[in-house]
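Researcher: I'd like a candidate sequence for this fold, 107 residues long. If you have to choose between options at a position, lean toward the conservative one.
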């Protein structure tokens, strides 16, 4: 009789695994300059948005590289915090400012 392993062995191959590793590495690599630039921006008296966003990207990337799906949810939270309507008051922009990358032309 065989005893089942208490922790299932994760598959370390296939497209899904390598895509997760790629995205995790990319988020980690992008989190470094965003967080570092954010620290510099704070030192210059600028926006406080980029430091926590960079730290959160580093954390999300690290979680994905560890195979933890919480990295996906952390990235979703970062994305929602960035795009939240009226959520840019801490970035010193007016409430209701358009997000340039997602603003549609007014007809």
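Model: Candidate sequence:
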């Amino acid at each position: 009789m065989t005893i089942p392993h208490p922790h299932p062995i994760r598959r370390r191959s296939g497209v899904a695994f390598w895509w997760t590793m790629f995205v995790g590495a990319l988020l980690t690599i992008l989190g470094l300059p965003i967080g570092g630039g954010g620290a510099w921006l704070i030192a210059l008296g600028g926006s406080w948005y980029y430091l926590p966003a960079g730290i959160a990207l580093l954390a999300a990337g690290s979680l994905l590289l560890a195979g933890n799906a919480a990295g996906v949810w952390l990235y979703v939270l970062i994305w929602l915090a960035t795009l939240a309507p009226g959520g840019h008051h801490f970035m010193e922009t007016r409430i209701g400012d358009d997000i340039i990358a997602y603003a549609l032309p007014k007809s």
